[in-house]
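Q: What residues go here?
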């Protein structure tokens, strides 16, 4: 079976048993992430730019540094969240090749 676990803590050491073949970490430029959050929180949640920046600096960034970024070390592949289509196609090929190699030992 194929199981895809997604989320900020999916690569945390205690999140999923080590039965999986490949771990993928999708990174996003910090400025792009802030820009997306700013737009979303103003538009969808009615928040002010000041409240968003305060939350970002005091909660989001420290949590990301402590929990999310270290999980990158457990990844077999790191993908760019803002890559172009060609980059994604090339990375998809790498993922498929790694999965085939990982599954070969089961035969």
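A:
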């Amino acid at each position: 079976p194929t199981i895809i676990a997604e989320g900020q803590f999916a690569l945390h050491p205690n999140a999923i048993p080590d039965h999986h073949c490949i771990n993928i970490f999708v990174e996003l430029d910090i400025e792009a992430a802030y820009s997306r959050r700013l737009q979303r929180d103003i538009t969808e949640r009615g928040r002010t730019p000041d409240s968003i920046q305060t939350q970002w600096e005091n909660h989001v960034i420290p949590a990301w540094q402590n929990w999310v970024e270290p999980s990158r070390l457990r990844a077999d592949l790191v993908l760019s969240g803002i890559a172009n289509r060609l980059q994604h196609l090339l990375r998809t090929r790498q993922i498929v090749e790694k999965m085939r190699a990982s599954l070969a030992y089961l035969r």
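A: Context that may help when evaluating the design: Helices lie at 30-45, 49-71, 85-104. The beta strands are 24-27, 77-80.
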